[in-house]
Structures are given as C-alpha cells and as structure tokens.
Amino acid sequence: MNNISYITQRVKDDLANNQAVIVIVQAKQRKQITEELSTYNFDIEEVKNKGQIKFLDAGLFLSNFILDNERLDTQSLNTYLSHTIKNSKLYFDHVLVIDGMMDLLLKRGKHESAVLLEKRLHDIASQQESSVFIFDSGIPVVVVCAEENSESSIRTAIENSVMNGLETAGNTLENLAKPSTTELKSFSSPI
C-alpha cells in the first residue's frame, strides 16, 4: 500500500467516524485521494460542504510561511493552522491534519526547515488535541498524535540511516582486517 492509499484509508475511516480532516497536499495527491475516496462511495462535495474535510494546496499554503525564500515563519503557521483546526473542532470532536508540506521542503533541499516544520506540527497537534499525519515520498507515513513524544521522525530516520551506513562500513572493515586462511596459488600469465 503506497502513502496515498494509506492516507486515503485513514481519511475514509475518520470521515466514517464523523471526524474532521484537513488535507494539505499537492494538487496531484489531492486528486488521487478524492478519486480513491469516490470508490468508497463518499460524496466529496457533501463532506466539503459540511466542513468535515478541507483541502489546502501544500505549495500555496507553505508559501505563506516561508520568509526570504528560506526561513519558516512558525508563528504564522501556528496561528493559521491552529485557527483552521479550532474552526473544525466547533463541529467535530477530533481533527486529523494530513501534511504534505514537509515533502515539498525535503524535495527543495530545505532539511532544517522540514525538521522545524515537523516539530511545529507536532506542537500544534498537542496544543489543539488533534492528530497529524506527516508524509513524504521517501519515508513511510509518520503519525503524530497529541499524546506521543516529540522526537523528530526526520531526524530519527536520518540518524538510523547514518547508523546503518556506519555499521555496514564497520563490518566491511572488520572483514577486511581478518587474516585470510586461503592459500594463494601461483599465477602464471598466459603467453
């Protein structure tokens, strides 16, 4: 199951349980999600009109919070996203935020901003007592709920990758350092 199918399944479950969903993804992903939801007989327009699901364009939404084409304006992000969640909580007990902005930042090489964004999203989820799905095309979906700890999954994924690389390198060096028990046979070159 790919990330979009996994996310669509979660959206379907939350909508069926009368919970609100805020989906912040690119247009292509939004189209995939709505197409998959329609196979489950969800009337997307009806749930949008009820305010149960909100689609926000990840690129446009993110552009509101990038300063000087570099820094992430966490205060504005916090204010706007918290307001959006609070509006949904007026009508629904629980809100799930699905984030694809981190994926955009990672694809643009803005790793520090992506880590900062992930931390801010976790903080907002905790403050608003909501859940966040953070995904990108390179790592599995990351589920962040208010009651979970705040360790950055990007940082953890990078650290795990580095540790795996170091372990592999260490094993290779260890194998090279072992004395060989095979005899070398003389080699004569063909004439």
Structural write-up:
- InterPro entries: MEDS_domain, P-loop_NTPase.
- This is MEDS: MEthanogen/methylotroph, DcmR Sensory domain.
- It comes from Nitrosomonas ureae.
- Residues 7-136 form the MEDS domain.
- It is a single chain.
- By secondary structure, the chain is α/β, with parallel strands linked by helices.
- The chain has one domain (3-149).
- It has 8 helices and 7 strands.
- It has helices at residues 3-16, 27-39, 44-49, 58-63, 74-89, 101-107, 111-128, 153-177; strands at 20-25, 53-57, 66-67, 71-72, 95-99, 131-134, 142-145.
- The strands form 2 sheets. Strands 2-1-5-6-7 form a 5-stranded mixed β-sheet, with helices on both faces. Strands 3-4 form a two-stranded antiparallel ribbon.
- Helix 1 packs across helix 2 (27-39) and helix 6 packs antiparallel against helix 7 (111-128).
- The termini are far apart.
Quickly count the domains.
Answer: 1
- Report the portion of residues in β strands: 5-15%
**Beta strand count:** 7
Shape: globular
H-E order: HEHHEHEEHEHHEEH
Arithmetic mean of pLDDT = 79
Distance between the termini: 59 Å
Describe the strand arrangement of the main beta sheet, using strand numbers: 2-1-5-6-7
Largest sheet: 5 strands, mixed
State the oligomer: single chain
Low-confidence stretches: 147-152, 154-158
